[in-house]
């Protein structure tokens, strides 16, 4: 029975790597798949992992229709057993519904990967619809950590190390330390709520309360 699965977690927790691993393993057993992505950091029409793995991918833009695309391929004699959909948080609710239709009407496995919430701890449209429609959601087991050592659960957007809460929801970027430009930092809920990034913690907290060697580290 085909399924619509959503593998999710914070930024930097291994989602793109898992997406490429799953494509590899299904292909190794003779299954035919397609890879989709949207706004990958490495550029258009590519799925990239921080581990250095990359793969060609079909770029999902606002007007992209998964149902039309797949039916067109099948009509031309193509075979599709599964699809890997990275950065699914950026897909529209309608596109998630098209993916669910692939599962229900064409028995195609759909594996989605993405972050749940944006820099304001608000669900992305694609993630919200996946929460509503997915057969299963799986939290990735590789844990990204907050600067305090707790498991990171939220994604902060920073400028010069300071957390910001204003701006567009979509802003492609990466986890970087000492960035003067816009960057992201994964935090535990407590420190996301307090807007306490590593830079601010180092500037304001005494070394004794900081883990991993205190302020100097
Ligand atoms: N040099 C490295 N050595 C080992 N693991 C690494 C290295 N760089 C990144 N990683 C792993 O890759 C993960 C990020 O992988 P990636 O697939 O890009 O994550 P996501 O797609 O969730 O942002 C990190 O959590 C870390 O576990
Ligand atoms: C929190 C947040 C993130 N993004 C962007 C930043 C990255 O380009 C991707 C997530 O990529 P990853 O593979 O999970 O690291 O999403 C954004 O546009 N808006 C946000 O609020």
From TrEMBL:
The UniProt record gives the binding positions of substrate as: 184
> InterPro entries from the entry?
P-loop_NTPase, Thymidine_kinase
Keyword hit for DNA-binding = no
The entry's active site is: 87
Q: Which UniProt keywords apply?
A: ATP-binding, DNA synthesis, Kinase, Nucleotide-binding, Transferase
Tagged with keyword Transcription:
no
Which SUPFAM superfamilies does the UniProt entry name for this protein? Glucocorticoid receptor-like (DNA-binding domain) (SSF57716), P-loop containing nucleoside triphosphate hydrolases (SSF52540)
A Gene Ontology molecular function term for this protein is: thymidine kinase activity
**Cellular component terms per the entry's GO annotation:** cytosol
Catalytic activity field? thymidine + ATP = dTMP + ADP + H(+)
- What's the top EC group for this one? transferase
Q: EC annotation?
A: 2.7.1.21
| NCBIfam families per record | PRK04296.1-2 (NF003297)
Q: What are the recorded Gene Ontology BP terms?
A: DNA biosynthetic process; thymidine metabolic process
Q: What is the lineage of its organism?
A: Bacteria, Bacillati, Actinomycetota, Actinomycetes, Propionibacteriales
UniProt name for this protein = Thymidine kinase
Family statement:
Belongs to the thymidine kinase family.
